[in-house]
Amino acid sequence: MKPIPEKEYHLLFRTTVIFKGLIAMGEIILGFLFAFVSYGALRHAALALFGDELTEIPLDLVWRYALRGIHSFTATPQSVWAFIFLSHGFVKLAFIWGLLRERMWAYPSSVAVFALFIMYQSYQLIYIPSFALWLITILDIVVVFLVFHEYRYHLRLRRAHLKNEQPS
Questions:
Q1: Exposed e or buried b for every residue in 54-86, given b needs 16+ CB within 10 A?
Q2: Model pTM?
Q3: CA distance 163 to 157
Q4: What is the pLDDT of residues 52-80, one digit of tens each?
Q5: Are 34 and 85 in contact (CB under 8 A)?
Q6: Distance CA 115, CA 43 (A)
């Protein structure tokens, strides 16, 4: 099998990190919503968006699963969700900023933090299976692999650069 060119790895790395950044911004927006908007107002907005779908008896398996998730979601205090979304979003955004700016500290620390997220999400998946959480966990695994690969690439570049600067 032919090895993947480094340019393609780098493009995939940047694309997934930017996508992860968009998810982090979404988490921050959700965190602020949970901090300042009541469940009742959120429910009213959902009813306005989805109409009577939310009040009907769901016949669709996916919709029924989603509604069950929403009901279990609202059992947790809003302040908890606000803290979770805001902390995750801001932490991820800080690492993503460092990765996109090619800061060497960001590579190993983001691998460690994203690996912790993967372990926690895997634990959650055992008790509360969620399609969205599966997708996020798989994305995190891909991001960790790509960040690790990019870090090794930058280390090789630095070593080569230092080797060329050594006096003969």
A1: eeeeeeeeeeeebbebeeeeeeeebeebbeebb
A2: 0.74
A3: 10
A4: 655 555 566 666 666 666 666 666 677 87
A5: yes
A6: 34
